[in-house]
Design a protein that fits this description.
Shape: globular
Helix content: over 70%
Radius of gyration: 17 Å
Structural class: mainly alpha
Distance between the termini: 44 Å
Number of strands: 0
Number of helices: 4
Number of domains: 2
């Protein structure tokens, strides 16, 4: 599977879930335009997406009191991949680092 295939699959799945939540298309277009305007800043789009995951996680955490919760499990997975993606993005923004050899 190529990166484009992965993105296309994610777009299709997200579009379906957004329809379930009645996400207004005009709001999507407002954000889409904002993301295009800031496309030169590589970390902006991933950062915005990660922020949304954090907001959902915080809200659910405040409301959930179940010992076993599939939503919590899903959020945990999302936070795992978010944390990994953020670490990679931050490292990429910082650029290559010189590695000191142990003396």
């Amino acid at each position: 599977m190529t990166a484009l295939d992965t993105l296309q699959e994610a777009l299709e799945e997200t579009t379906a879930v957004a329809a379930d939540y009645q996400v207004p298309e005009h709001r999507v277009r407002v954000h889409e335009e904002r993301f295009r305007e800031t496309a030169a800043r590589h970390g902006f789009l991933p950062g915005a997406m990660q922020r949304t995951i954090l907001d959902v996680a915080a809200q659910h955490h405040a409301e959930c009191d179940r010992e076993h919760c599939r939503t919590c499990d899903t959020i945990r997975h999302g936070l795992t991949t978010t944390l990994a993606a953020l670490r990679v993005a931050v490292a990429a923004e910082r650029g290559p680092r010189l590695v000191r050899k142990a003396s």
